[in-house]
Amino acid sequence: MPKITFVGAGSTVFAKNLLGDILSIPALAECEIALFDIDAERLHTSEIVAGKTAAAVGALPTISATLDRREALADADHVITMFQVGGYEPSTVVDFEVPKEFGLRQTIADTLGIGGIMRGLRTVPVLLDMCSDMEELCGDATLLQYVNPMSINMMAINKASSIKSIGLCHSVQGTAEQLAGDLGVPMDEIRYRCAGINHMAFYLDFARTLPGGGLEDLYPKIAEFAAAGNIPDRGNANRDDGAFTGLSDAVRYEMYDRLGYFVTESSEHFAEYVPWFIKRDRPDLIEKFGVPLDEYPVRCERQIAGWESMRTEMEDPDSTIAVSPSVEYGSSIIKAIETGEPTVVYGNVSNEPGYISNLPSDCIVEVPCLIDHNGIQPTTIGHIPPQLAALMQTNINVHSLTVEAVLQGEREHVYHAAMFDPHTAAELDLEQIWALVDRLLDAHGDYIPSSLRR
């Protein structure tokens, strides 16, 4: 039976969802689960939840929990990462509050923008240190990497480590389901082909299967849906004490109208990857497109406020845990590698072989990947529409400069990454950008590599 190691297992709810998926697969029901975290209390809760999850699906895994990462990694076959360096406090708070002093506002700040850059600087060294341990302790393991900023992290791993890895997100399959709902088409009839970079991949084809065979292109129906003024609000249960409030999808539909293809990432994310929607002197744009400034801190604060009651319920010896399938790819990848039963997922991998021919060879692309006994086998997409490649390149510039800053220990490249970031450049001049970077690097202190600190 394979050993599956969870790094950052204190992310209890996410770990529970993946565990439910994994342990529901008969071929994995007796696997070894190793849970690791640096927070003893959260780790304890996750160990209890893992046991209850196994009981709920009738699985009999061997479960261990440890504060020693090397112990958890030893002889692992699959390693799943799910951690946040610096946590909500102090690091996420710093990433939002310091830029506000310069008039720079953000929504999520975990992928791009000045917040994504800083998160990358904090996270890459931890991931590479872990990969170094993996090379020594479980060199043949597959790394299933869920930590943001996805492209920055995966680019660093591919440049500095020999570990087999794939970056995983749920935006491709999640958005496909949302679009199917918008159009009133059952998800099991949807067929699509998607490609790009993480949080900026586009559906090159979006269709439905017809009863008599063949496919119906659904892009004309998406255009009709948008033209009719039906742009939906996506419910967000993390606000207003659990009440669902609207997160407008206007940004994505606007980009579809301008580019001709629908993007996979949510509007609140996408708004800060480009220079057109968040402008301090244009509050009308914020209102028109429903851009939720400071959305991520709101989510974090709601989650933190509810954590104690959630933990009490989870740790109650008399409580049980309900398990339902998630949209995450992790379990299907492990199953395919272990059993040879093939599956296709959308994964983030190096573009070195040229899977997308008009993007740089060293960037990270999100493309369909066949998984079986032979491991991860990405699909060649070829040339994507030039307007999409041009948009992605603006984000890739930031990814590559952030990675170079860490790998080369070059503080200057942190300034360069911020300088070329689309949203930051649209709001601040060069003196402000340099001053903002200095303030953030100082504020993050020891979370930033020593080579980048003054």
How would you characterize the overall build of this protein?
The chain is of the alpha/beta class and 454 residues long. The chain has two domains: 3-169 and 322-372, AglA-like glucosidase (LDH C-terminal domain-like, Alpha-Beta Complex); 172-298, no CATH class. Helices cover 47% and strands 17% of the residues. The protein has 17 helices and 14 strands. The chain has helices at 12-23, 40-57, 69-73, 87-101, 113-137, 150-160, 171-183, 219-227, 250-259, 267-270, 283-289, 295-315, 330-339, 386-408, 411-420, 422-427, 430-444, and strands at 3-7, 32-36, 62-66, 78-81, 142-145, 164-167, 190-197, 200-209, 215-217, 233-236, 245-248, 343-350, 364-372, 375-378. β7 (190-197) and β8 form a beta hairpin. The longest helix has 25 residues, at 113-137. Mean pLDDT is 95; it is low at 237-245.
